[in-house]
């Protein structure tokens, strides 16, 4: 961290800042310049609130130099993280598709979806038993009954299960049913939940919050990792902007910097990102081309009758067509799928 | 809801939309026009996903006409809600200041804060025992020990306590210690938590999410109210925009439409909204002038040594000066404080 | 347009709205419903300010049903527009790369850039003679002298020139030097300039404004087209959001809806969109995969010594590598380049 | 400016950065630290593109320490700027209301508006002869004929005229008709126009761009001031965010930092900021309380028949009521109006 003094700061003001830095157990380094003094700070500044120093008399501004995340940072861990699931390996050189219905509606449709996906080479299925809905009057998911369905379908078919955990109360139950625990966008900064899944033995798919900066997203991953669970996968799913041409603004531009700053795999969810079926294939292909490690796609045997998010779900022929296109593109880009 | 057909939609396509509306137990009303047909829908459309119809062949777009919230809506409840606390009454004609430290740091400082506030006519104190922090390495609050401190200070001084609940696990404990349960901005769409406080007997102060639309905010209030707890107070605390001149963009412009669409009281938190002490008084006065029902302000006996958010906390003389200004302004605006 | 009345609107209020609609020479169609009345409006509503009706007593809201743009709309012009330049044809089935330095710095570097690009199959070169710079103290471009350089380089090499016009004063001069006239993001709603280029005989590359909705962007295109110049190409170059991981947020998600709503070609500028050289190739490939018709890329013979935007410019080897990757991807996607 | 090297940067990489800084005629100051080296830069860094250094090998990031604007900065000019108009003085201790119709529609209504305003103590009238409209099919203003009307009304009544200039072509004509030249939000970065009004002898009211940061806004003022016209007044009029509860998001939170960083007066336009008449008074009062130096308000003798922006215009009784409330509030806040 660097404290920049005002050009007319007095020596007493500089001394006071230096003193304040020492009081919080950090080391100040005074750097007098031609027009003003700056004070560099070393030590563990990750948890320091820069504004504490910024309000001292004579201070112009405080500038954070090092990143506040460690475990999620590529500086600490040069090689890409590979997440090893029983059904697949997520990481560099591969491209992993996770598909399936928005929510578990009944056993037949989940089973049918799993069989379809496996027959097309997709080994991981998404399906929500707990559904975060904006309206209290909307379908909230089948809950524990939905988890039981997922377990049975996994046993019968061998498909890997990706499903959302919404509160600490059901952490153990979801951990038992899931191969990957999904944390939804509205819970990206539900710190109690992040701490809880930090103690789970399943990989975590961490969706980006609707208005989360890349740093906040990586800090959320840091919460999970600080608890001992290093198997974190990031998932971009659209952010909140002024734009109104789609449900959210799918931010593919975050992929290259996320891969540069962190070693964690990055997924893209074009279904939530666009909110419209017709836009999903183009954004899925673009996600692959942008360097994502995988996709999360909503597929439904009968989208027009889906209990939730039918408008953004592909049907089976649409999914099949997209998978073909993805495979061709992946081959050119040197990725196996 | 209104379904607008494309100008070249066939009668068969119109018939199919009408059929689909009936299948979800709603009533279609066909409205043929000179260039295209529109279909109005009546019935309980609150939980209908417009996009289900929007993807049918021949449909141009679906337009929601009625609001999806009911209990929070002024259409359903013309008069302003008055929240009656043992220490104060929140609602029209009054202006309620809630002040206090960001977090409970120790009993002495909480007690000192309470005494100062009561001596200046402030009857409600904010102070967090559980702190949502972006970094897992930052001070996370004193937890249940902090709640015990708050209870003792309330017993000794009679001050009303406003404190944050972060997860369902501690709901009963917070309910016991608090006169008002605060739901933080990161939890505005933590639906499990909203449902839980819907069963609490304490009023809820619901902070707006960082990128929540007014409708989403009122839907979050609806979650609490649908559980039977009608004592909800909204709190604007700054939203996430492109602007970088302050920590968040305090959105005072939401106050008039919030008051128009809903009967719930609206608070403003200029401390989090600006993130800088120097900007807090101007925004506090502006919040009052804009029609807010109260303020949530961070005050600390020694801001430069605060464990969290010191940079945005007023000291006691600064708080006193602001209270004086607020009282003068409130008098002119016909509000008692 | 549809006017939705409040549930308790009186017949007199409904009559007054109907009267107001007639006064602005439009046709009202009353649609009484079970809980409220709606009034559909037909006629040329493109220029009507919905809010004029919205403030009448008893009105709940006004909803715009038809789009305000006509010439830019795919409803009016089903087939994709093909822009025919002397050097290339922009449109479906092709993928057009426009590359070159941010600004004209001297004749040698422009000539060297043109020769390099032509040798690699790139037939259109971008280079600015007039530069919009945030700071009045930054290099503002070589102006008319820069245009003269561009003309000479075009004569010598045959490369097509894409260059920016910043004000009406230089419209004729730019028209003479350019094969494509670029309108920059800060001028997307400089309506005097849009009207002026509507009278030019050169195609226009219209960059999206930093916070322009898709509708506003198409309305800006409509300004140019309403003047008689139908050769408009859109260019996404990053929008302004809360995100801070790159210079702007390159919004690839706008491509599918832009292609759905309009028949105009869409380009992507990953150089301005990301602001960092390292992120350009991934976003360029993603733009192609997302369905764009072409790219605008900054290439410089010596980026570290560029007078502007060097940090986001590729060097020649980097450009060559990217062109190879684009060609491979284009082939798979059925596009010629 | 400060260049922060990566922790594993080599001495050669540090040397190259130092060399690059010298090549752009600035002075490097190497600051070796325990984990990494930083290099401070002195000299005129205002026009330096930080990214040029940021892309050099071994560089982690570049941090700008000093502000790029000088003339608009309070560091250079401690005292508040007072803009002296024939009719009024804008600056500290006063509160200046500019009101009037959105556009000049005919001489009678402009004259009537001027008489009304003067009778209520408002000495400056806004009215547009040139109107920037999103649609090419909407009323574009009366143009030079409108300017002639404004001149005649000024002669007859003595009211001060505030009117918009949209392009350099009409600069002289607007300068002759206006006491204050308004630059609209869409032209905040129309640099040709800013340079032109820098040569005008009239004060300039500079509206904030829809997605302009405070720094960009002050840089736009710097363009005008760098041309020799120091009489610049800033005007906040709502920015573009995700929020949909009003036409724009009126950002009152920018007022305190704008006043802290700059000595220029700051106005607020609650009419464009909210887009709805019902929300204007609350936001006008809040603007005053937040520390603005004045307001820009749309008032119309018959808003329901206005040719533009009628929905956000107050009628005369509404204006009168608001002026009364503003006067009472101003008195309490120590401002004369």
Please explain how this structure is put together:
The structure is a homotetramer of 337-residue chains. The model of chain A has no long low-confidence stretch (mean pLDDT 92). In chain A, the strands form 3 sheets. Chain A has an 8-stranded parallel beta barrel, surrounded by 7 helices. Chain A has a 4-stranded antiparallel β-sheet with strand order 2-3-1-4. A two-stranded antiparallel ribbon of chain A has the order 5-6. The first copy, chain A, has helices at residues 11-23, 50-54, 107-119, 144-157, 171-177, 191-197, 214-226, 255-261, 270-274, 280-290, 316-332, and strands at residues 2-5, 27-32, 37-42, 59-63, 83-84, 89-90, 96-100, 124-126, 160-164, 180-183, 204-207, 232-236, 266-268, 294-298. The first copy, chain A, starts with a strand and ends in a 5-residue tail after the last helix. Chain A is an alpha/beta fold and 337 residues long. Chain A folds into 2 domains: 2-63, Alpha-Beta Plaits (2-Layer Sandwich); 83-332, Aldolase class I (TIM Barrel). Chains in contact: A-B, A-C, A-D, B-C, B-D, C-D. At the A-D interface, β3 and β4 of A face β3 and β4 of D.
